[in-house]
Amino acid sequence: MEAILNKDDYREFTQRVDIAVSKGEEVPHIVDMISANQFRVTLLKKVDLELLDELTG
User: Fold this and answer.
1) Total-model pTM
2) For residues 21-49, average pLDDT
């Protein structure tokens, strides 16, 4: 899965990844900076997004 995030969405994504990792759920990903306000995030494995929302919400 790939997504283009703005700076604020990317900050939220990284916070949620940190929470998920602290609860034992790995979220391997790659980030490419497109511009000062855009980031391309590519998940490296299939991730249950609903589970991540539950863990981090």
Assistant:
1) 0.85
2) 94
